[in-house]
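Q: Could you fold this chain for me?
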Amino acid sequence: MSWKNEVAELRRRRKLAEQMGGAEKVARQHARGKLDARARIKGLVDPGSFREIGKIAGKGSYGPDGELLDLAPSNLVFGRANIEGRPVVASADDFTVRGGAADAAIHRKFVACEQMAHTLKIPLIRMIDGTGGGGSVKTLEEIGATYVPATPGWGEIVKISDPCR
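A: Sure. Below is the predicted structure, expressed as structure tokens.
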């Protein structure tokens, strides 16, 4: 039995996720002088240490035969990495995907990120660049800012922050 087809499909899905919000949105992000999510993580962590988790999480578009045509990836990029040789969980909102706003299902990835840091008892780094829950993309464009939203997984963040646990 060969896994050749399954491995090829996984690689294809990873490539779709790496397109983030698409070439036009990534270009717009860069034109504003902003790094995209993966570039921010890459610039922070030790070279070659980042291992992304849940890269292909998101919402798929399917053809009539059930084949995946496209993927709108999660707006959160996260994984395990090192900074100066010390382990961390590093995460960054991807503004190119829905303005960084998570939908009802994708917030589970945020919770998983925070749970991972708590379980491993290592620091969590959150590079926030999104409108999620803190106002719409339209609000951001009109006033140039959003407000801090409620955070899914807040309980896990509190546990991570409590040195007595």
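A (continued): The chain has a mean pLDDT of 83.
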